[in-house]
């Protein structure tokens, strides 16, 4: 079983999504609960001059949003959340992690 934690930036992004799209957060909460029991994200790569190969992504809400997380032992740390548009969620994570 994993413990799920959040970076401050990711939590802020999720709160913004909640204001804009409350139904998306309901789906996200279910994903987070599932993630406590099984790590199932897609590993990111080194693309667009951003090495995020130590992170994973999960799509939610009809693939409109992404959660980006790192797996550290039995801890899943959510480090990013948001839309993929213009790679913003990935750029934010890369900036925070660099």
What does this structure look like?
The chain is α+β, with helices and mostly antiparallel strands. It has a single domain, classed as RelE-like (YaeB-like fold, 2-Layer Sandwich). The protein has helices at residues 8-20, 22-35, 88-97; strands spanning 3-6, 42-43, 46-47, 50-51, 56-60, 65-72, 75-83. A five-stranded mixed sheet has the order 1-7-6-5-2. The longest helix has 14 residues, at 22-35. The protein is globular and about 35 Å long. 29% of the residues are buried.
Quick tags:
98 residues; alpha+beta; YaeB-like fold; 5-stranded mixed sheet; two-stranded antiparallel ribbon; 3 helices
Per-chain topology:
Blueprint: E1 3-6, H1 8-20, H2 22-35, E2 42-43, E3 46-47, E4 50-51, E5 56-60, E6 65-72, E7 75-83, H3 88-97
Parallel strand pairs: 1-7
Antiparallel strand pairs: 2-5, 3-4, 5-6, 6-7
TL;DR of this structure?
38% of the residues lie in helices and 33% in strands. With 98 residues, the protein is α+β, with helices and mostly antiparallel strands.
CATH class: Alpha Beta
Shape: globular
CATH topology name, in short, is YaeB-like fold
Spatial ordering of strands, largest sheet: 1-7-6-5-2
Number of distinct beta strands: 7
Order of helices and strands: EHHEEEEEEH
The low-confidence runs, each spanning 5 or more residues with pLDDT under 50, are: none
In what range is the share of β-strand residues? 25-35%
User: From the 3D coordinates, which CATH architecture would you assign?
Assistant: 2-Layer Sandwich
Structural class: alpha+beta
Tally of separate helices: 3
Largest beta sheet, briefly?
5 strands, mixed
Distance between the termini: 28 Å
Residue-averaged pLDDT: 94
Radius of gyration over all CA atoms, rounded: 12 Å
For CATH, the homologous superfamily is named as: RelE-like
Q: How much helix, percentage-wise, in residues?
A: 25-40%
Number of domains: 1
């Amino acid at each position: 079983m994993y413990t799920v934690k959040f970076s401050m930036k990711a939590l802020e992004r999720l709160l913004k999504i909640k204001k804009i799209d409350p139904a998306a957060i309901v789906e996200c909460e279910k994903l987070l609960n599932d993630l406590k029991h099984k790590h199932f994200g897609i590993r990111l790569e080194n693309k667009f001059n951003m090495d995020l190969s130590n992170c994973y992504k999960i799509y939610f809400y009809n693939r409109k949003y992404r959660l980006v997380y790192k797996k550290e032992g039995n801890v899943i740390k959510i480090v990013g959340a948001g839309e993929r548009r213009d790679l913003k969620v990935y750029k934010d994570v890369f900036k925070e992690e660099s």
